[in-house]
Every structure is written in structure tokens, then in C-alpha cells.
Amino acid sequence: MAYDHILFDETDGVATLTLNRPAALNALTTGLIAEMIDAVDRVRDEGTARCLLLTGAGRAFCSGADLAAGGGPGAGSARPDAGYRLETHFNPLLERLFALPVPFITAVNGPAAGAGCSFALAGDIVVAGDSAYFLQAFVNIGLVPDVGSTWLLPRLAGRARAQAMMMLGEKIPAATALDWGLVWQVVPDAELAVTARALAKRLASGPTRTYALIRQGIRDCLDASLTEALAIERRNQRTAGRTADFAEGVTAFLQKRPAMFTGK
């Protein structure tokens, strides 16, 4: 697929996906989402990238769904279906991001609003520039939060903060997001790209299959009992212990040298 709305590059094991509609603050259209799905599928299927980095071009990460582009089939009718594009585009993309077999980092530059907020906070590790902010804008136009917001935000920030964020529709600055546990790190805007890239390269040289087990194990255990979580950890540890990276890690430890992981 030729890309008109995103930039996609793979270097040193890092696949970088950049939302590239800067004049529209990287607002999401079905065409852009389709291109993102194609790029994420490439990361999943080609097996050469060992980390995915998602960011936005220009002065915004993503301003959310492009309302000017229309609401999908039924828009303008007496009873439009505002959730149609969730089913056909947005939700399939989010599920693909969570199911990736490699780590997923987001570098949040400027606004991350609406669905853009969801995609920003879906990263395994979220790094934000100090001018970034997060906005659950849905209530301001009479809609409910979507693209996984009502599942993800209470788990990150707690029910009280998540609910106020969604019902008040106010901007959450990067510093507050850090205090709430929404992001891993806040850095000066000028250092965001370099910081995120260095982190992505670090993960791309790590034990890829172990990372996949960690990210899936956390999600599985969030809704599990202690007994279920212990069983999940036991299964995952068996899988991790059979990887070449585990053998290399132990050998490197005993030989007092840095491990050279291959992702296998």
C-alpha cells in the first residue's frame, strides 16, 4: 500500500510510524486509519522490526477523529451511527496494537485528543514532550469516550481521575499526566524525538519474545484473580525459559558481559 497520510520507516530494528497530516493536527480519517492498520500489519507479519514507535508530524500528536471528514455511513441522517467507524477502523487498529509481538512506544508531541488520546496512552511506554496534553474531548460534542478509553484510563489513573477527565473534558497537561501515571516520562519538546528513538533502539536490541509475554501478561492479569495471575506467570515463564534469548542472557551473566539478544 502507498501511504498518503502516514510516514513509515524501519531502521535498526525500529519501525517508526508517523501520523502525517500536520495541517489538520493529524486528525484521523478512515484513510489514515487504514494506512496505520497496513503499517502495523507489516510490523507484525514481516518480522524484521523489533519495536514500533508511534508519533505525529508537526505540532500535534493527534487531535482525534476528523469531524470535517464526516461520520461514516448514516452521518447527516435522522439517526446517524456515530460508532460505525469504531467497528470498521478504529477498534481493529487498537486491537492490533495491543496484540503486537514487539514493544510499542508512543512519543507524544503536543495535543493528544479524543481517539488520539487513546492511541497515545495505549503505548507500552509513553514519552511526552513538556508541551503535550491529553484530552478526552468526547463529552464536549455530546459523545462518549471510545477507542478503549473507558477500559484503559481507569486502569492507568484510577476511576476518580478517569471519570473526571471524561466528564469535564478538560486538558490534562503532561506534568499532570506524569503525576497520574498516564505516561512514563516527560522531557523537553526539543529532546522528545531523540529520547523516544533511543528508548526504541534499546527495546529493539532486547529479548523480543519476552517483551511480548510481558505486555500480554500484564493485560491478562489485570482482570485475573491472584490464582489465575500466578498460573499465567507460570505459563509465560515456561515459554520465556525456552527462548534462545534466555540461554544467551544466562550465559552473558555468568561470563560477566552484555547479553546479545536476537529476539528469538
Describe the structure in your own words:
The chain is of the alpha/beta class. It has two domains: 6-204, 2-enoyl-CoA Hydratase, Chain A, domain 1, CATH 3.90.226.10; 208-254, Lyase 2-enoyl-coa Hydratase, Chain  A, domain 2. The protein is built from ten helices and nine strands. It has helices spanning 30-46, 84-99, 115-121, 149-157, 159-168, 174-180, 192-204, 208-222, 226-241, 244-254, and strands at 6-11, 14-19, 51-56, 104-108, 111-113, 125-129, 133-135, 172-173, 185-187. The strands form two sheets. The protein has a six-stranded mixed sheet, with helices on both faces. Strands 5-7-8 form a three-stranded mixed sheet. α1 (30-46) links the parallel β2 (14-19) and β3 (51-56). α1 (30-46) runs parallel beside α2, α4 (149-157) crosses α5 and α8 runs antiparallel to α9. The radius of gyration is 19 Å and the shape is globular. The relative contact order is 0.11. Mean pLDDT is 94; it is low at 71-75.
